[in-house]
Amino acid sequence: MGAIEDRVDLRLWSVATFRAVTFVIAVALSVHSRGTLAGALSNLNTAIGFGLFGVLWTTTLIATRSGDRYYRRRVEDRRYSASRLEATIVAGGWNGVFIYLAPTLALIYALIDNAAALVIATVFGSFVAFVVGAFVGLAYGIVEALLRGISDTLIGVNRDAVIE
Amino acid sequence: MPGASYQLWFAVRYVHLASVALLTGGAVFAAVACEARDSSAVQPDTRAMFQTALAYEWIFWSVVGVAAATGISNLGLKGDGLLGPETSWGTALSVKLGAVLLLLALSFVRSDIVTRCSESPSVDVRVRRVLSVLYGITALTLFSALWLGLGLAHGRY
User: Fold this and answer.
1) Cα-Cα-Cα-Cα dihedral sign, residues B59, B62, B63, B65
2) B17-36: per-residue pLDDT in tens?
C-alpha cells in the first residue's frame, strides 16, 4: 500500500510541476516573441519573481490534487463515466481561483476599504478566474491526453487495463 | 545586471547550473541503469532499475522547477542585455525555451511510463528499452539546452 501511495504521489507531483513549469515557460516564450520580455521582467525583482513562482507551484499542486480526487470519485461512481479531461478542466478552474485569491485579492484588499466591494470582487472575480482557469485546464487536458496516448503507444499497453 | 548585487547574480546562476548538471548527470545514469539490466539475464530483476528511475523522477520534477525559476530570474538579471526576438540572440532564446517545453513533454511521457510500470510484477524488454531511450533523449536535450544557455550567457549569438 505504501508503494502505491508513493506512486500516486509521484504522479501528482510530476503532473503538477509539469503544469506549473510549462505554463511559466510558455508565457515567457509568448512574451519574448512579442519583444516585451525585458520590460515585463524589469517590473519584477528576484524575490518577488521567486515568490510568485512558489505561489503558482503550490496552487497548481493543490488544484491538481483536487482534480485527481474529482477523477477518482467519478471512477468509483458507476453513474458517471470518468474523464481525465473533465478532471483537468476542474483542476484548471480551481487553480484560476487560487491564483486570483492569493496575490490579487491581497492587492484589492490594500486598495479598497469597502467591505461590499471586497465581497463582490471576491465572488465575481473568483467566478471569472474559474472560467479562465477552466479554459487553460481544457488546453492542458488535451495536451496531456495526447502525451498519455504517446506513452501508451510506446509501451504497447491499453490504458484501461492498467491501474490509474 | 542593473540594480542587482553580484552575489545574487552569482547565486542564481550557480543554482541554475547546478540544477541542470544534476538533471543531466542523473539522466545519463538512469539510461545506463536501464540498459545495463537489459542484457544481464534471461529474466532480469527490474526492481533496482525502477528504484533508480523512481528516484530520478522525484529529483527531476523537484529540480526542474528550481531550474526554471532561476532560468527566468537569470533573464531578468540581464536587464538591457535581453535582446528582442528579431536578433540572433533572441532567436537562440526562443529555441532554448522551445527545447525546454519539449523536454517537459518528453518527461511527462517518461514519468507516466515509470509510475505505471513500476508496480508491475514483470516488465518486458520493450519497456526497459523505451525507458533507456527516453532517458538518453532527456540527457541529449539537456546537453543541447546547456550549449544554448552558455552561448546566451556570454552573448555568442
Assistant:
1) positive
2) 999 999 999 999 999 988 87
